[in-house]
Amino acid sequence: MRSPKDFFAPLAVGAPQPPRQIPVRPSRMIHFFDPGNEKMAAKVPDIAKKTDVLLGNLEDAVRADRKEAARAGLVSIAKATDFGRTQLWTRVNSLDSPWVLDDLITLVTEIGDKLDVIMVPKVEGAQDIHYVDRLLAQLEARAGLTKPLLVHAILETASGVANVEEIAGASPRMQGISLGPADLAASRRMKTTRVGGGHPGYLVRTDPVGDDLNEGRTTYQQDLWHYTVARMVDACAMNGILPYYGPFGDIRDVVACEDQFRNAFLLGCVGAWSLHPVQIDIAKKVFSPSPADVAWARRVIAEMGDGTGAVMIDGKMQDDASVKQCRVVVELADELAATDPELAAAYDAATKETQS
Ligand SMILES: CC(=O)SCCNC(=O)CCNC(=O)[C@H](O)C(C)(C)COP(=O)(O)OP(=O)(O)OC[C@H]1O[C@@H](n2cnc3c(N)ncnc32)[C@H](O)[C@@H]1OP(=O)(O)O
Ligand SMILES: CC(=O)C(=O)O
Ligand SMILES: [Mg+2]
User: pTM for the full model?
Assistant: First the structure.
């Protein structure tokens, strides 16, 4: 552990000052693409216009014999594209792989000024973040970068979950954590064969009514990811970084995808991954507070005055704690509305309606 006094000191001579605050920019969807896939790469300039984060993926889902092509593709896309307000992230290969060292050296040297966040897969504990932290500082110094790169960890090993609090606080570069349900399931020896989402066998059943154990007993499917997402959210919140749900692999099932994303949103996540263009709008809808919720939250804040005491609004008690929740919703809505005129208009229209 670094001494708290040294926590914000650069880890290499000439490296930029590490960040003291994680920049809060919209990141409702982290859209994955394979930079070595020409069809996907061709869509990047258009997709950039409608996503908060574009991520050039170099790790799983890129074939072993296409790793170099993906890395080179990301370098040329980053150099050739104006991403506007959209952030550019990458997911490098895992720290035990033969590719990660070249991923980091090439990307920081060639396009370190274009990248915002480096996503590190299969993080097991703080030691993995410390390794990346020092290496990034050395590479930033050599490349003459003035803005520090941020680091995002994927929570996808049993060890990572057991150490999630220390991972979240391992470096001032830590920007956030995403749930990695596929590798995590394998690491835990869960018996699922899916990428995220629920499973019909994971359920609770109501008690029997009489002697017949089968008749009239409703079952309720449970969320396999509740415990992990909740732990991840707490670890992130206590360290001032951002939690994300990860991938939902059943691309066709847009309904269950929306449900899984919404569970994560309600529990505190700020975004999710989109693996296919069809998931971009789902994430945008789910991770933007609804106009009705924003209107209600604005009303509670207005009626609560200085934010202390208790009032009754439409039969519901509001006090210091509920007004704090409302502020979370309104702050997020204001941040998103600042760059999205359509959303801003929807929020204002709903607010006017509640006032009339
Ligand atoms: C567990 C994990 O690690 S999850 C993260 C790793 N996985 C990924 O990154 C997967 C990313 N997504 C993909 O590889 C693809 O979306 C797949 C393989 C799931 C499906 O691809 P396809 O079979 O081509 O899907 P589909 O035919 O519906 O695609 C329609 C079009 O969208 C394009 N497209 C598909 N996914 C993407 C994407 N993520 N970004 C940009 N374009 C895409 C296709 O190239 C295709 O283009 P075309 O119309 O010019 O032919
Ligand atoms: C997200 C990811 O990498 C996984 O689920 O394994
Ligand atoms: Mg994984």
Answer: 0.97
